[in-house]
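Please fill in the sequence for the structure shown.

STRUCTURE ENCODING:
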């Protein structure tokens, strides 16, 4: 499931992120890649332990904690602190699949169920640089507004297409969901979204809504891996 989560960051937060990133010290993105990824990775990356990365990462995590659409779709158990990359003209990150397991700063391991890319540059400011996600015989090329996030399966074959003009700034991160199975997670998301829609249309104490909320909770209880 690909999910567009709009306005994770507001315009002021995006402007603050971009100002800090313009002042930051970037390094070759291949330094953080494995041997296979390093062969197709050509970009710049902010060191994860830099002051800018930690400050901006906390801003993003705080915003996600109150984003109902993201929480409903992801059901996050653990989230790797966001990282930041930059693609300039001629740079790209070729087709690859993200690592199945990521290591947190405290040494704990995180199973990467979902990947997320948060766009920080308005699409009109750069050419190329689409996030292309391959699913079977089809592919999706995606470029979102600054402050918007794309959530997608970490199992996906994907790439950042070459930037031909301008500069592309993004945050990216991985998360482990409470519900490991992608189909179960999708069903829970659809059920939750319908419950929320009905809550806006019906009395919040309507008997059917109470039953649906109970059904949702019991399915989470059955499927959650915690």
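FILLED IN BY: designer on duty
SEQUENCE:
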């Amino acid at each position: 499931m690909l999910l567009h989560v709009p306005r994770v960051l507001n315009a002021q937060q995006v402007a603050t992120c971009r100002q800090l990133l313009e002042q930051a010290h970037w390094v070759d993105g291949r330094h953080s890649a494995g041997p296979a990824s390093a062969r197709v990775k050509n970009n710049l990356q902010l060191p994860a332990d830099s002051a800018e990365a930690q400050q901006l990462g906390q801003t993003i995590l705080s915003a996600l904690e109150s984003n109902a659409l993201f929480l409903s779709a992801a059901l996050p158990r653990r989230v790797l602190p966001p990282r930041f990359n930059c693609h300039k003209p001629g740079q790209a990150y070729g087709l690859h699949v993200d690592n199945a397991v990521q290591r947190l700063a405290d040494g704990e391991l995180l199973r990467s169920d979902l990947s997320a890319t948060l766009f920080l540059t308005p699409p009109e400011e750069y050419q190329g640089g689409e996030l292309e996600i391959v699913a079977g015989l089809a592919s999706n090329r995606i470029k979102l507004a600054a402050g918007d996030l794309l959530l997608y399966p970490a199992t996906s074959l994907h790439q950042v297409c070459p930037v031909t003009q301008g500069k592309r700034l993004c945050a990216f991160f991985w998360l482990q969901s409470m519900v490991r199975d992608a189909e179960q997670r999708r069903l829970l998301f659809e059920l939750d979204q319908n419950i929320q829609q009905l809550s806006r249309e019906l009395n919040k104490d309507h008997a059917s809504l109470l039953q649906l909320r109970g059904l949702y909770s019991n399915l989470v209880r059955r499927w959650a891996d915690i």
